[in-house]
Design a protein that fits this description.
With about 70 residues, the chain is mainly beta. The chain has one domain (about 15-65). About 10% of the residues lie in helices and about 25% in strands. The protein has one helix spanning about 25-30, and strands spanning about 15-20, 35-40, 50-55, 60. The chain is globular. The structure holds zinc ion. Zinc ion (ZN) binds near residues 11, 13 and 56. The site of zinc ion has 8 residues, from loops.
């Protein structure tokens, strides 16, 4: 399962999603609700954001800190 996304540090909203890079595994797609994450494409930068706020569009976190679960 994807990690639970934290509240937005900018607006405090709980409506945040995890940004997933690369090709999600089949299990991830099957076991997760689509609203819980968005696909960020094949970004390779370790500084790429990993969380996205649906309320204020803020993105934060670093890809290099994202737990490996795929
Ligand atoms: Zn926000």
């Amino acid at each position: 399962m994807p990690p639970k996304s934290p509240n937005c540090p900018e607006c405090g909203s709980e409506k945040t999603v995890v940004i997933i890079y690369g090709i999600p595994g089949q299990g991830l797609l099957t076991n997760s609700k689509k609203s819980e994450f968005i696909i960020g494409g094949c970004e390779k930068s370790p500084d790429a954001p990993i969380y996205h706020c649906k309320r204020c569009k803020n993105e934060w976190g670093k890809l290099i800190d994202q737990p490996k679960y795929l």
